[in-house]
Amino acid sequence: MEWDFFFRQLEAGINIDETCFYFADDSCKNEHYLGYLPQYEKPYWVGYCDIEDGCEFESAKELVEAPIFAGKSLRERWDSVVICSIEGCGLDDWIKYFRHI
Which of 11, 13, 15, 79 could be cross-linked to 98 through a Cys-Cys bond (beta carbons 3.0 to 4.6 Å apart)? Predict the structure, then answer.
């Protein structure tokens, strides 16, 4: 998935919760999660990162620029991101059946 498309969905908070991914350069393929829950003051969240118990952010930009994945940001590591699922669906189904902007 192209960075611009992903970031546009994340920033809009549309059908992007429970995004599960790993980094291709991680031999253990440890899964990470991120999402958006609009009912919270800090609606953007990340689980399984450098911060024990995960973390929350006020904006999508803040989330993608935080150095929380082996000391680097999601934006910095995007080329090695492998998305497993979004909203509980495989990537192909998510792209086909969900609304995007």
Answer: 15
